[in-house]
C-alpha cells in the first residue's frame, strides 16, 4: 500500500521503540518523514533502517527535547519550511520514570515525567494544530497507555501523565473535528520496547527476563506485544481510512485491560 504517498508525517520519539516501528511502517507506504528524538544516535539508526525499507523516502532529522516548548515549536516550523504542510503527527515521545509508592515518589521525578509525557504532548498538539487548522485537515495520534485508562502500581508519575494524555486527546478532538482534524490515542500495554525492558530491569535486575515471564502471565495472550504490531495500528490511524475515528483511545494490550 501507498497510503502516505506525498504525505508529511512527524514522529516524535522516533529513535527507538514504538516511534521507530511506526516510522518504518509509514516509510514503506510512501511518507515524507520528520523524525524527532532527543537521542541523535537513535535518529541515525532509524534513518538507516528507513533507507533499507524505503530507499527513496525523504527524511528530516531533528534532535529535540519535547519537554522544551521552543524546541517543539522549532521542529514544527522546520517541517513547514521544508515540506509546506503536516498531514499527520505521531505524538509519541515519552519516558517511564522510576518506580515507587506514591508517598515515596520523588517530587523531581514526578515533575520530570509530567514534563515529558504530558507537557510534551501538549506542546506538540499546540503547534501542530495551528498548522492543521489553517490547512483544514490532519490526523494526530497521541501515545497514551493502559496506564492512562487504569491504575499502574508504583508508577504515579507515569499513570498521571498518561491519564492527562487521554484527557487532552478527547478534549482537543471535540474542539478540532469541525476543522477536518481527527485526534485519537493509542493505549499500549506491555510491548517489548527498550522502555519496557528498563521497567523490568528496575523490578528484577539481572533476572529481568524471568520477571518478564511472570509479568505477562495475567495477559490473555500470555506474551508481550511487538513494536511492529503497534506500528501497524499507528499507520492505520494516521491514514485517511481512519479519518472518522475521533476522540477514541484504542488499547493494544492483548486484552489485559479488559480482564478484570
Task: Break the fold down into its secondary structure elements and pairings.
Elements: E1 8-12, H1 17-28, E2 32-37, H2 40-53, E3 59-63, H3 69-83, E4 88-91, H4 107-135, E5 138-143, H5 156-176, E6 181-188, H6 194-204, H7 208-215, H8 227-238, E7 249-252
Parallel strand pairs: 1-2, 1-4, 2-3, 4-5, 5-6, 6-7
Helix pairs in contact: 1-2, 1-8, 3-4, 4-5, 6-7
Q: What does this molecule look like?
A:
It is a single chain. The model has no long low-confidence stretch (mean pLDDT 94). Strands 3-2-1-4-5-6-7 form a seven-stranded parallel sheet, sandwiched between helices. It has helices at residues 17-28, 40-53, 69-83, 107-135, 156-176, 194-204, 208-215, 227-238; strands at 8-12, 32-37, 59-63, 88-91, 138-143, 181-188, 249-252. It starts with 7 loop residues before the first strand and ends in an 8-residue tail after the last strand. Helices cover 47% and strands 15% of the residues. It is globular and about 50 Å long. Helix 1 (17-28) packs across helix 8 (227-238) and helix 4 packs parallel to helix 5 (156-176). The protein is of the alpha/beta class. It has one domain (8-189, 225-253): NAD(P)-binding Rossmann-like Domain (Rossmann fold). It is built from eight helices and seven strands, in the order βαβαβαβαβαβαααβ.
Amino acid at each position: 500500500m501507498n497510503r502516505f504517498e506525498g504525505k508529511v508525517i512527524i514522529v516524535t520519539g522516533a529513535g527507538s521503540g514504538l516511534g521507530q516501528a511506526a516510522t518504518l511502517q509509514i516509510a514503506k507506504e510512501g511518507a515524507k518523514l520528520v523524525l524527532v528524538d532527543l537521542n541523535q544516535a537513535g535518529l541515525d539508526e532509524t534513518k538507516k533502517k528507513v533507507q533499507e525499507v524505503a530507499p527513496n523516502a525523504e527524511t528530516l532529522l531533528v534532535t529535540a527535547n519535547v519537554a522544551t516548548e521552543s524546541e517543539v515549536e522549532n521542529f514544527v516550523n522546520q517541517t513547514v519550511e521544508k515540506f509546506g504542510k503536516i498531514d499527520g503527527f505521531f505524538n509519541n515521545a515519552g519516558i517511564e520514570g522510576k518506580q515507587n509508592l506514591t508517598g515515596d515518589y520523588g517530587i523531581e521525578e514526578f515533575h520530570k515525567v509530567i514534563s515529558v509525557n504530558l507537557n510534551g504532548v501538549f506542546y506538540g498538539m499546540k503547534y501542530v494544530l495551528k498548522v492543521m487548522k489553517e490547512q483544514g485537515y490532519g490526523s494526530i495520534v497521541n501515545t497514551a497507555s493502559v496506564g492512562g485508562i487504569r491504575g499502574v502500581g508504583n508508577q504515579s508519575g507515569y499513570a498521571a501523565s498518561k491519564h492527562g494524555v487521554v484527557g487532552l486527546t478527547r478534549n482537543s478532538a471535540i474542539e478540532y473535528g469541525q476543522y477536518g482534524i481527527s485526534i485519537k490515542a493509542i493505549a499500549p500495554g506491555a510491548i517489548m520496547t527498550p522502555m519496557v525492558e528498563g521497567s523490568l530491569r528496575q523490578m528484577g535486575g539481572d533476572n529481568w527476563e524471568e520477571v518478564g515471564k511472570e509479568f505477562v502471565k495475567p495477559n490473555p495472550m500470555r506474551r508481550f506485544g511487538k513494536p511492529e504490531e503497534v506500528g501497524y495500528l499507528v499507520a492505520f490511524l494516521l491514514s485517511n481510512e481512519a479519518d472518522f475515528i475521533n476522540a477514541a483511545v484504542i488499547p493494544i494490550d492483548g486484552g489485559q485491560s479488559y480482564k478484570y
